[in-house]
Known about the structure:
The complex is a heterodimer of chains A (286) and B (343). With 286 residues, chain A is mainly alpha-helical. Chain A has helices at 17-38, 40-61, 73-90, 92-104, 108-113, 121-147, 160-187, 191-200, 202-207, 223-228, 230-242, 253-256, 258-283. Chain A contains 13 helices and no strands. With 343 residues, chain B is an alpha/beta fold. Chain B has helices at 43-50, 72-76, 94-104, 109-122, 138-149, 168-183, 195-201, 219-225, 241-249, 277-290, 305-313, 317-325; strands at residues 5-14, 17-27, 32-36, 58-63, 66-67, 79-82, 156-160, 187-192, 204-209, 212-217, 230-235, 262-264, 269-273, 295-301. In chain B, the strands form 3 sheets. A 6-stranded mixed sheet of chain B has the order 6-7-8-3-9-10, with helices on both faces. In chain B, strands 2-1-4-5 form a 4-stranded antiparallel sheet. Chain B starts with a strand and ends in an 18-residue tail after the last helix. Chain A: Residues 41-284 form the ABC transmembrane type-2 domain. Chain A: Belongs to the ABC-2 integral membrane protein family. Chain A: This is Transport permease protein.
Amino acid sequence: MTSLTDRAPRVPAARGGIAQSFADSLVVTKRNLIRMSRIPEMILFGLIQPVMFVILFTYVFGGSMQIGNSTDPDVYKNFLMAGIFAQTVTFATAGAGAGIADDMHKGLIDRFRSLPMSRGAVLTGRTMADLVQTAVTLLVLAVVALIIGWRPGYAAPTNAGKIMLGFALLLLLGYAFTWIGALIGLSVRTPEAATSGGLIWLFPVTFISNAFVDSSKLPGWLQPVAEWNPFSATVQACRKLFGDPGLSPSDAWPMTYPVWASLIYSILIVVVFRTLSVRKYRRADG
Amino acid sequence: MPGAIHAEGLVKTFGDVTALDGVDLDVPEGTVLGLLGPNGAGKTTAVRVLTTLLRPDSGTATVAGVDVLKHPNEVRRSIGLSGQFAAVDEYLTGRENLQMVGQLYQMRSGAAKARAGELLERFHLADAADRPARTYSGGMRRRLDLAAALVVSPPVMFMDEPTTGLDPRNRQALWDVIKELVSGGTTLLLTTQYLEEADHLAHDIAVVDHGKVIARGTSDQLKARTGGERVEVVVHERDAIAPARGILARYGPGGRGLDDVSVEDHTRKLTVPVTGGAKLLAEVIRDLDAVGIEIDDIGLRRPTLDDVFISLTGHAAERARDEENGTGRPPGKDRTNRKEPAA
């Protein structure tokens, strides 16, 4: 009689496994990217914040900071950028958490959960969309950094490949942190709680580190915390790869082999928090 | 042989609230079961269990012959769900929403696109197809939600209060869609608090209250349980109640018993169960007229499902809602409180 039942397509056979998981995640990623593009103010605020940090830190603290033996504001500026980049990518956590908390409280999640789709795709799609947004933010931030005087190779020689690797490590760190945000988003009752819960812990993580100050000048008991902080490893790796000044002189393992440390930390975070998040999503009774 | 939807002994508690207290259901293939009850009765919880969204504490269920608890993903391939909250992404356009759902049913992107176009036409959303869903009216969102549930042609459909909050025109349009689906062979479980809706659409009705099925049968069977037809008379003057009662008693089942006639003094309304239909009504009017009793209103009333509900539960469907909330606001309407047992 009509297209409702007669001509309707039947459900295709499930592809199953990783192929389906990947395809479903891409569909959800696309959904989230369309959403983001229709709420441009979110992207705008996501950009303003790190740009503001760069400018504030450079011009407010720049003159009073000592990096190694130097108090030259130019040295601090070049030292600072890797820290700001890393801080920026980790702040994507809060957005991911709030987005997922918001999704979990809307009717749409019932649609997703009643569809024959991969269980992890709703979360993976969200984190992948956040990764795209983080990459855009990082690109803008890098341009701003170059404009105000960041010069890769300032303290040691570098090349395009190393710089790309540095940004890749930053994006991986950001991706890992969005999975922490996902778990927070799934654990709280409201998107507002996810926003503040997703932000609070980022302050100690990003400040008890080598990002903004020379970690060898921290109180003795705080130094190991900063040196073994996964966040510090990525910052150190970027400084090394970008040829920036102010490498932590520490002989702690993550500071000595920061590229490997950053890679291992980030992958470990993805594995642990993705597993926990997907499990929590499956069990969510809505 | 178990039906397309079959459930036995479903129990689900949320804290100390028992949402489902041993629910058994069976919906034969190609039929409609109306799950009728007030808010908080457990209707939505039952739907959520059957659509794999919620695991029951105990009990078993199969949908389209597949075990809901053991093979939820297999069940998801056979069902469509349309709820009382439009489950669409408000920032995506109608077309994007339907395409996304199609792709998540594992359709190829071209096929999903074609199907989205068809459904948008069919549900009169073609003009709004490329506008974000947040610009849609309530009725349009609901139509989009239903379209999303029909992207593939699921043999089993679940509709949770599909017409709650819809205006009469949209409700009628939705009823037409439901009838069309069922004539195409779809099995449907429909929850509603509108007795009229269950009466109109469902082959079988299960009345739910406090997490239990308290009665089941066809609409006619349920009505028969509350007794057949009744004559209702409203007399003009209070003094006429007593003589009118005497006359009406002759038509009651006992022949003479005044007890057969129920009287509501303040509305001057008398009611007597009768058999004999419309012809009888004329006789009653003649008899009352013969002794000079003036009447304001007279009618032959067939029992509605409202009467059924009141006779089964001792309270009206609407009142039950208010009692449970205090505020009269139905639970589960607020998406931020999803942890509470929904209706």
